[in-house]
Amino acid sequence: MNYAKLSPSYNTHHNGGLFTMRRLLVAILSVLFLGLSISAQTRLLRFPDIFGDKVVFTYGGDLWTASTSGGTATRLTAHPGVETYAKFSPDGKWIAFTGQYDGDEQVYVMPAGGGEPKQLTFYPSRGPLAPRWGFDNQVLGWTKDGSIYFRSLRDSWSLPIARLYTVSPQGGPAVPLREPCSPPRSSIHHPQRGKRTQRKRAGEPCSSCPWAVRSTPH
Q1: Can you give the residue range of the structural domain that contains 28?
Q2: What's the total number of domains in the chain?
Q3: Residue 58 and residue 33 in one domain
Q4: 97 and 115 together in one domain
Q5: Predicted local distance difference test score (pLDDT) of residue 63
Q6: What does the alpha-carbon distance between residue 118 and residue 89 come to, in Å, rounded to a whole number?
Q7: CA gap 23, 17 in Å, rounded
């Protein structure tokens, strides 16, 4: 018996149902694919810094800000170079960061709400460096008086020995931070010389510490 002839509307409803199911399946797969794409795109958020209810971070080599409670992120930079290590100023009005522009890494500052970055350092950076050594002129934060402090390799020659510097957000020369000075950890007795030599702590400048490498009678 030919059911198609007995029920002429059967094929129409059947084909329409299949078409609807296919459209529903395509829609579901599209939503899943879009969700996976968005999830994959937001897995490389790096170098975050928080001030109040705002967070600044690096994504895709650019700086973005967003609310700490979630929502839409706002893009701050769009330079072909990479911006990293963003840090809010103590009042939250400025953002300092390390910009890798034209193959050179320097310290920059910009308004937290967006604007043109201002270059603060100009001494040629060292690099490219091994990943474990990080970036040259790497922004680390702000001081209480509103200066930016950063890590630089400008004083090293062969080995990547870094030192901390500060620079004003208004510009001007970078000023090296004084290295810590503390009492000696140990003293070494030389029986043959009859002297006791006090050794300085590693990293202390010999010229600034009164106890740095001096000999005293036994």
Answers
A1: 3-41
A2: 3
A3: no
A4: yes
A5: 97
A6: 15
A7: 10
Q: Are strands 195-199 and 46-51 parallel, antiparallel or unpaired?
A: unpaired
Say yes or no: 74 and 162 in one domain: yes
42-73 pLDDT tens trace: 568 899 999 999 999 999 999 999 999 989 99
Residue type, 92: G
Q: What are the tens digits of pLDDT across the range 2-17?
A: 444 444 444 544 455 5
What is this structure's pTM? 0.65
Q: For residue 181, is it within any domain?
A: no
CB neighbours of residue 161 within 10 Å? 10
- Asked if 205 and 136 sit in the same domain, the reply is no
Run of H or E residues at 39: helix 8-41
> How many residues does the structure list for the chain?
218
> Does one domain contain both 203 and 151?
no
- Chain-centre distance of CA 155, in angstroms? 23
Q: Which residues of 128-145 are buried (b: 16+ CB within 10 A; e: fewer)?
A: eeeeeebbbbbbeebeee
